[in-house]
Amino acid sequence: MERVLEAGLEGTVRSWRAPRREASLRARFWIGLMHLVTAALRRSVGLGAGRAFNVAVARRRAKFLGNAVAMVPPRTVFGQAADAPVAGEWVEVAAATSPARTLLYVHGGSFVLERSDLHNALIARICKETGARAFIVDYRLAPEHPFPAGIEDVKSAYRWLLDSGTDAARLGIVADSAGGGLALSALVALRNEGVAMPGAMALLGPWVDLTLSGNSIIGNLQNEAMVSTLEGINICARLYLQGHAAGDPAASPLFADLKGLPPTLIHVGAPEILRDDATRLAQRMRDAGVDAWCDVYPRMPHVWHRLGPLLPETRRSIGEIGEFIREMIPDLPARRRAGGRQ
User: Fold this and answer.
1) Catalytic residues, which ones?
2) How far is CA 342 from CA 96, 224, 334, 339, in A?
3) What H or E segment, with its residue span, contains residue 56?
4) How does pLDDT run across 173-198, given as a tens digit for each residue?
5) Neighbour count for residue 141 (Cβ, 10 Å)
6) Which domain holds residue 7?
7) How confident is the model at residue 77, as a pLDDT?
């Protein structure tokens, strides 16, 4: 099945660093276990069980599970941003006094789930790889705050970082899953408003097409280990849109005008139901003149980067993200970084 999934992608997707052709034995074990855990979680919140989907229960159980299995790196420091216009936290590793870069992180969760320690661990590891600090934006969630509340929160966080003295060229965007769609929609809107674009963007399994038109939505239903069922993503899309047109480019930025966006690295797993969101986005960005790359990892589940040191593929892919961001946002010269002193 893995070779079948990849066969149609060869020659159509430009990789930043081509993944290995086979998944590790450790990855195969953990992914098999995740299939079982995810199936149980789906049933517990009413998906595929003939019961109504319960948002509150889904939030509690997803956050409990995420916090239980997360492995936040040692010496990670979280701090409140009291002056921020939106909820969120600063995170950095080893409390670097002069980080070389700043990241804005937009977490996933199908527009309805809260941030968990799985997300915290992910961005902390990327901060460690990039010598950066990151602001994690806790955007408002659906259904209480439907489209476009989350996009407006990401825009506010971005503008606040610039207004606080962050150089746009030294700012990177990291986002996963539904957060990838929010981040992309926010950047398109900010570009239209004449705001300077960041130096780089990394999108992990981005959900950018709420019309669910990608072939992989159906083709990969039996292969996906992490994302909910087709019923589940339909429910979450409806909770977020609440009657708004799914094909509106502001809601589904795959269909937006993508010119002028920053260099972008996209990661996706070959078995993901959102695989075609990622590969089509990379192609549309390149067609618009944007430097974009999409690495398709064999067998990897949705945003496998959150699995920390469990998998060789996780360590490799986070290292690749770090390499990309460091190349797009190089280290400052020593004289400038030290404020004019050697």
Assistant:
1) 177, 272, 302
2) 18, 52, 7, 9
3) helix 55-69
4) 999 999 999 999 999 999 999 999 99
5) 23
6) 2-326
7) 93
Rounded CA-CA distance 60/57 in Å is 5
CATH number at residue 198: 3.40.50.1820
Decide: 35 and 225 in contact? Cβ < 8 Å.
Answer: yes
Q: How many helices (H) and strands (E) does the chain have?
A: 11, 8
CB 81 within 8 A of CB 117: no
- At 44 the pLDDT is 55
Q: How far from 78 is each of 133, 162, 171, 247, CA to CA, in Å?
A: 10, 21, 19, 37
Residue 307 Cα to chain centre, angstroms = 14
Which two three-digit tokens encode residue 294?
Answer: 């999409």
* Beta-carbon contacts of residue 215 (< 8 Å; ≥ 6 apart): 276
**Residue 127 and residue 37: Cα distance in Å, rounded?**
29
Whether the full predicted model's pTM is greater than 0.85, yes or no, is: yes
Q: How far apart are CA 9 and CA 214, in angstroms?
A: 14
pLDDT score for 49: 53
Domain assignment present for residue 280? The answer is yes
pLDDT of residue 244: 98
Asked whether residue 35 is domain-assigned, the answer is: yes
What is the rounded CA–CA span in Å between residue 100 and residue 122?
19
* pLDDT at residue 64, rounded to an integer: 87
Question: What's the maximum distance between 2 C-alpha atoms anywhere in the chain?
Answer: 67
DSSP string over 64-86? HHHHHH--PPTTEEEEE-TT-SS
Report residues of the chain scoring pLDDT below 70.
Answer: 1-12, 19-51, 95-98, 223-228, 333-342
Q: Is residue 242 one of the residues assigned to a domain?
A: yes
Residue (of 161, 47, 160, 155) closest to 110 by Cα position: 47
Distance, CA of 280 to chain centre: 16
The order of strands in the sheet holding 200-204 is: 76-80, 88-93, 132-137, 101-106, 171-176, 200-204, 264-269, 292-297
Inside any domain, residue 335: no
Number of separate domains in the chain: 1
